TrEMBL record:
It is found in: Membrane. This is AI-2E family transporter. InterPro entries: AI-2E-like. Belongs to the autoinducer-2 exporter (AI-2E) (TC 2.A.86) family. The keyword Secreted does not apply. One of its GO terms (biological process) is transmembrane transport. It is a multi-pass membrane protein. It comes from Gimibacter soli. Keywords: Membrane, Transmembrane, Transmembrane helix.
Length: 377
């Protein structure tokens, strides 16, 4: 098999895989969760295997302990969480009522300034918007239930994800070895080197960001509970879940907290400042301690690239795309850096550090007319 044919086979196989994943995106969630759990727990299974525990038994122990711990935490907090959710559903209309004076004034100002025929009563706006929202929710629910996707995802996360996680964790080393045996010999060293870097980046994100998001959820829950904000546990859970998405998750959690704070206390500067103080404290802890401790600089993604990856993943594949966007962006960043390094090495374009004299080879490429005379002090 020629090198060109082998390359096109790899490219074609990759494109087919991308197309297959896109077509099956509606049922990917339990498999993505199982894959993430297997990747997260692989070091623990490796340690058990080093202690002479058979891989299958070790994988079963790890997966069982993991899911039992998750279920135990949910059962421990479920009564309080259920109580806060019930209270939130009962008090939400009264909470939104605190926004009526502000919204009425804003709508009246827009109507006077721009001449728009907007209703000056909030109830009129909310009734029209709520009717549209309910219609869309009803249509979406009918489509999901009729297609079986919602039922499959719910049952999949409960039943299929542990099974997928177990089999992947049991055969993880075999799968990696099999893929490694498929690599062409002339590119195998480079592929292994980049795969090791991608593994380092993904480990830094998956294991590190999970720890950061859980810590942020605890900080938000405890901080807002001490401030006296209602539904602090719900907000902490929301912050822990959304914290998987850097920047965006914490901002959305804080936005919901501010809305609830205004509904609870109105526009009281002291209470709003306390709610904002908890958010600022959490951000300081994340930036100065949590992220350097758990994630470090292994991911190395620019904030703009992070935001673009999150929104692009959500646009292409919905919630599953949001989950896989950042790990995929981190892997792409490693490959892009490798391509740039190869390009610079090929054309011998090595950037000169600041305050560093150019090398003789670089000086030879500069014409006599372009050289500037040295500046004497």
């Amino acid at each position: 098999m020629t090198m060109t044919l082998s390359r096109w086979l790899w490219i074609g196989g990759f494109l087919l895989l991308i197309g297959f994943l896109y077509l099956t995106k509606g049922i990917l969630l339990p498999f993505v969760i199982g894959l993430a759990i297997a990747y997260l727990m692989d070091p623990v299974a490796d340690r058990l295997e080093a202690m002479k525990v058979p891989r299958g038994i070790g994988a079963a122990i790890v997966i069982a302990v993991f899911f039992l711990a998750v279920i135990g935490i949910l059962l421990a907090f479920w009564p309080l969480l259920q109580s806060q959710l019930a209270n939130m559903s009962e008090k939400l209309p009264a909470t939104l009522a605190n926004f009526r004076p502000w919204l009425n004034g804003m709508l009246a100002d827009l109507s006077d300034r721009f001449g728009f025929a907007v209703p000056t009563d909030v109830e009129g706006v909310l009734s029209g918007v709520s009717a549209d929202i309910l219609a869309k929710v009803r249509d979406s629910a009918v489509k999901l239930v009729s297609g079986g996707i919602a039922f499959f995802n719910i049952m999949g996360m409960v039943l299929i994800s542990p099974v997928v996680a177990y089999y992947l964790l049991r055969d993880w080393d075999l799968i990696v070895a099999r893929i490694d045996s498929w690599l062409p010999r002339h590119v195998a060293p480079d592929v292994r080197e980049q795969a090791a870097k991608i593994d380092q980046v993904l480990a830094g994100f998956v294991r590190g960001q999970v720890s950061v998001s859980l810590s942020m959820g605890v900080i938000f829950a405890i901080g807002w509970a001490l401030v006296g904000l209602d539904y602090a546990l719900v907000l902490g859970l929301l912050g822990g879940i959304l914290g998987i998405i850097p920047f965006v998750g914490a901002f959305l959690t804080a936005l919901v907290a501010f809305v609830l704070a205004i509904g609870q206390w109105g526009f009281d500067p002291l209470h709003l400042a306390l709610v904002a103080g908890v958010f600022v404290f959490g951000q300081i802890m994340e930036g100065s301690f949590l992220t350097p401790r758990f994630v470090g600089d292994r991911v190395g993604l620019h904030p703009v690239w992070v935001l673009f990856a999150v929104f692009a993943g959500g646009e292409v594949m919905g919630f599953v795309g949001v989950l896989v966007a950042l790990p995929l962006a981190a892997a792409i960043a490693v490959l892009v850096r490798y391509a740039i390094e190869r390009y610079l090495d090929h054309y011998e374009l090595h950037p000169v550090a600041v305050n560093e004299e150019p090398s003789p080879a670089a000086l030879e490429t500069i014409s006599e007319d372009d050289r500037e005379p040295p500046v004497t002090p």
